[in-house]
């Protein structure tokens, strides 16, 4: 067996056997699903609460339109004077009191309706109340001017624009949300992977240094071989962990949704009537299927592995340069800054305009390209842009690995010194 | 005798610091070669060059008359001074891994490990983690790993540190046996008594330069000053001392005796042989002690280094 294979195997086994790895692998999905379950449970708790709102309607013409629903129940207090009603609401600890004064013109009424409550009422409830009153007021205004409401109702039109691309495929209105979701997910996964597994590579380099085995190993293999083997072995362990997470997470989510009756479908924003919802979710599914799925998966793997390699060689070099994890903090900047930059560019620029200048430039720059390009891909990127970006990425990986290997080669044999950036640059010349 | 290893004019610089300057050494096949020098002299750098861990800026290294190349890694076993093993890895697995890195097949490595583990009576350690072993125990494992692939050249950097006297002796005997089986050993240490005991050749490095190299017996011959330690039984120390002092160059000596002797160090010039001196002394007093002073490695070390300052 070649030495590289041996190193990869050892690193993989060392990672996988580690207790933290085992615990993390099997506990994280449980925690994750548990959190989702908890949050859903808490929201349902909230929904069960019924808010009682008292109404004093001196005009008498609005009260009938307030129909109690699931979360809100309206109680008619109109026969009480306003002050008595207020006292009663406070004593009974109701949610609030709606006061519609009488003897005013409709014009004045628009500004003189009051809502009394201990704390600022929920905006949804207020909007609902406003909507009911506005509608009735409008109707009254129409009536006064002699307009037939039935005619208006029958001539109301509702436009629903159907979206279709030039290839004739129908898409839903939230198509770009679907793309954002997939792009963001891919970028976020890469970010997490780089930080978690890059740190693992660094820790394992430091371990070899502190346990002093490094000199024994590199009298048998080349430092570059050791470094690459380490990165690859750790990658395999990471891929395994993700694989297990996806499986466990999937199974648990399925079970959880079955028992708690949680709707796992992504919630659709906006008020879409029930019958259209079915059609919409079919279109969403269509959207997902319409995404360039195969190229998405392939590009995900390319950028995932490329980006990870790029960053973990920096992590390996840092590990070689320092003696302990505490010393590594000062060198974290070259990793954290581009990662964060890439993620924020992804979140703000790409979603705003996936093909704008900022998005395009950052999807070419090697340290940010993996995350930014992964976020752009679902929106469809010209093949030549992807090609250029990948070529730049591969070239910079080669450059970075050589660069890191140089620091690594010198650093692993340096004990007891806390090097500065300046000193590390000097090592490059040895 | 052919040389197994030849280093020619090796120079290595780290930035502005010169770690080695034009150092050449020749290690004869089958010898135990002592690589000596004060701390920071450049020994470790030289060893790392031989191990191809670092490349020399100038100069070349030949192993068995071939320029050093990556395949030679299998022919060298190296026990570094800063030694260590993976703490959380099991002894057996770790030994197998390191042996395989040196090119042994898994099966071969297992067989040889069994032999060594039996020999050192540590078979029950196989499934223990290194962190459960004491320092000396871990050193034993490390020694086995170093010699397991039967390299032509063994490099030991302070091999006895961390061992108790009994285990140090065990390791010493193993080193001698490996030499007898045909291995060549480079031995770097500050413990001069073990150099005295083991080495047949030495090289002395100071301030990144080699200042002495050769067969230990030749070096000792060159460093001896024709001085003899004598113990004489006489009634009148004073007069005997002045008589001798007129004839030879004499210095007081110090060694343990049971009776009151005149203890002297007498250095001969080229005009008189040791036999003549003995004859002369025996006429003057009863000679109880007469031996040539041969410089120890320790004395040679200190003398050469201080003269070199």
Features:
heterodimer; A: mainly alpha; D-Maltodextrin-Binding Protein, domain 2; 2 domains; two-stranded antiparallel sheet; 6 strands; B: 309 residues; alpha/beta; Rossmann fold; Alpha-Beta Plaits
Describe the overall structure.
- The complex is a heterodimer of chains A (430) and B (309).
- With 430 residues, chain A is mostly helical.
- Chain A folds into two domains: 51-146, Periplasmic binding protein-like II (D-Maltodextrin-Binding Protein, domain 2), CATH 3.40.190; 183-427, no CATH class.
- In chain A, 67% of the residues lie in helices and 6% in strands.
- Chain A contains 16 helices and six strands.
- In chain A, strands 2-1-3-4 form a four-stranded mixed sheet, with helices on one face.
- In chain A, strand 5 (163-164) and strand 6 form a beta hairpin.
- The radius of gyration of chain A is 31 Å and the shape is elongated.
- Chain A starts with a helix and ends with a helix.
- Residues 264-273 of chain A have low confidence and may be disordered.
- With 309 residues, chain B is of the alpha/beta class.
- Chain B folds into two domains: 3-221, Rossmann fold (3-Layer(aba) Sandwich), CATH 3.40.50; 225-293, Alpha-Beta Plaits.
- Chain B is built from ten helices and 14 strands.
- Chain B has helices spanning 43-50, 91-101, 106-119, 135-147, 165-180, 192-198, 216-223, 237-247, 274-284, 297-308, and strands at residues 3-14, 17-28, 32-36, 58-63, 66-67, 76-79, 153-157, 184-188, 201-206, 209-215, 227-233, 249-252, 262-267, 286-292.
- Chain B has a six-stranded mixed sheet, sandwiched between helices.
- In chain B, helix 5 (165-180) links the parallel strand 7 (153-157) and strand 8 (184-188).
- In chain B, helix 2 (91-101) crosses helix 3 and helix 2 packs parallel to helix 4 (135-147).
- Chain B is elongated and about 75 Å long.
- The two termini of chain B are 33 Å apart.
- The model of chain B has no long low-confidence stretch (mean pLDDT 88).
- The chains are: A mainly alpha (430), B alpha/beta (309).
- At the A-B interface, helix 1 and helix 8 of A face helix 2 of B.
